[in-house]
Design a protein that fits this description.
There is one protein chain. This protein is of the alpha/beta class. It has a domain of 110 residues: Transcription Regulator spoIIAA (2-Layer Sandwich). Strands 3-6-7-8-9-10 form a six-stranded parallel sheet, sandwiched between helices. A hairpin with a 2-residue loop joins β1 and β2.
């Protein structure tokens, strides 16, 4: 059992030490990062967050979170919590407190609930990172519901699971295009230490390199069950190329950015640059 400091002791990040020019790309304001909680009660197969942040969900007090957000001289935030969908009441209360800030923000998944989604939209939800693990109606509806509330979706797609074949991966990419996913980020299953993935693949002697320089989420470092390693590596590049074939990644990002800029102009929070 890990002994973490009291969550109340987590203070405001020292943004004064940041190089502000890194948050301004060609005059376009990028995002600042902020935490509203620590830890994650889930135990996802490839994830080491349980080890790094603990298995318990530890939300920060609302007043401290909102005070920190309000003090950030940037209208665009990335709430970098592992998942906001861990306590529905806390989630709704947080979004309700954020509404007056008029910030625009992205985050990892939020609860699939009408009240939560509505409050998130009112609070300025821009887009979410959503794990997409298959081409089921559940995933199709999940993406549609985000879109119904004006929230864009960047899918996080993991390649190399034991049931993945070449045909499966190609059909999955086709599905992502069919459901109008706004952005996609493909990664190769990577057995990071302190994950169930590492334990399973290590015990099965399927990991063929322990050179951590290769653990980039873009290189195959293990023996897939139904594919040669070289084929999985090829399919990783195929997925990126195919998804962005008609609309390049930069263009898809521009479309998402334009929508948030339009919202900022409508509520009077638009800025072309941040202070250096």
């Amino acid at each position: 059992m890990q002994d973490f400091p009291a969550i109340e002791s987590v203070g405001t990040a020292r943004r004064s030490i940041l190089k502000r020019e890194m948050y301004n790309y060609r005059g376009v304001q990028m995002v600042d990062l902020v935490h509203a909680s620590r830890g994650c009660r889930f135990n996802c197969y490839p994830c080491c967050v349980n080890f790094l942040g603990g298995r318990s969900f530890r939300p920060r007090p609302f007043d401290k979170v909102v005070e920190e957000m309000a003090g950030i001289d940037n209208n665009r935030l990335f709430i970098v919590d592992n998942s906001l969908a861990q306590d529905k009441q806390w989630e709704m209360d947080l979004f309700r407190e954020m509404i007056p800030l008029k910030k625009k923000w992205c985050c990892h998944p939020i609860e699939d609930d009408d009240k939560v989604l509505d409050l998130a939209a009112q609070a300025g939800a821009w887009f979410v990172y959503q794990a997409i693990f298959d081409s089921s109606d559940f995933i199709r509806d999940r993406i549609k519901r985000y879109h119904d509330y004006g929230i864009a979706v960047e899918g996080s797609i993991l390649l190399g699971l034991d049931y993945h074949t070449e045909d499966y991966i190609k059909k999955l990419v086709d599905f992502l295009l069919e459901v109008d996913l706004d952005m996609a980020e493909f990664t190769v299953l990577t057995p990071f230490p302190h994950t169930r993935t590492f334990d399973d693949l290590h015990n099965a002697k399927r990991i063929f390199t322990y050179d951590w320089n290769n653990y980039t989420c873009g290189k195959v470092v293990f023996q897939p069950k139904l594919l040669p390693p070289e084929k999985l590596q090829e399919l990783y590049y195929y997925a990126w190329d195919k998804f962005y074939e008609e609309e390049p990644q930069n263009y898809k990002m521009f479309k998402m950015l334009k929508k948030v800029m339009d919202k900022e102009k409508a509520d009077g929070t638009y800025k072309t640059r941040i202070r250096q």
